[in-house]
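pinned: reference chain
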Amino acid sequence: MSARVLIVNADDLGLSEGVNAGIVKAHEQGILTSASLMVRWPAAEQAADYARAGRLDLGLHVDLGEWVYSEDQWEARYRVIEEETEAAVSREVESQLARFERLLGRPPTHLDSHQHVHREEPTRSVLGRVGDRLGVPVRQAAEEIAYCGLFYGQDGRGAPVPEAITPAALIDTIESLPRGVTELACHPALAVDFESTYADERIAEVEALCDPAVRAALADAGIALRSFADFRGDAS
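pinned: its structure tokens
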């Protein structure tokens, strides 16, 4: 295996048809190698149909809610569960996992969460146990797979950072990758057909992911593209 390996993973698959189309384009014409499915959303079945044809590696994008930064504080746009106790989170994660397996006919190859809610307890422990049971990596918990979130067009409070999602910025990130396996997250879409504070940025991401100069930079750097399916059973 190459000294440097890159998994390019798209979050939010299934959120809308526009997101699905952007992820498919970035996979078929760009460098995207895997995606994480939001099973609660209207376009999840369409996304699963595409993946079942054997064309895209899928993990579960656990969805417990979405928050936006407004007037110096984070406010919930929606919540999936009212009270985030360990028991409630566990029930919801298991429910979403069961729906994933019904849609795909197989378990996910990796686990992560919408807006990284699994960085905090109790979701961190819940997802860790599920990952151990399935033998799949959990984002930022699998020692063998580093995480890179630099390819994102906003800062931590939602202010635009368009220079972070250009082809040049993506090439800089690629060239600076460490040895070993790295997951690079992305959020592409071809149309903004849903409510989101991260909207036009998604379209710009598709353009960067499909830019021929980006693929050439991977080749020049000797970096191999892989998917999570290539590391099944290597979770820590």
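why pinned: The beta strands are 4-13, 34-37, 57-62, 65-70, 73-79, 111-113, 145-148, 180-186, 223-225. The first helix runs from residue 17 to 29.
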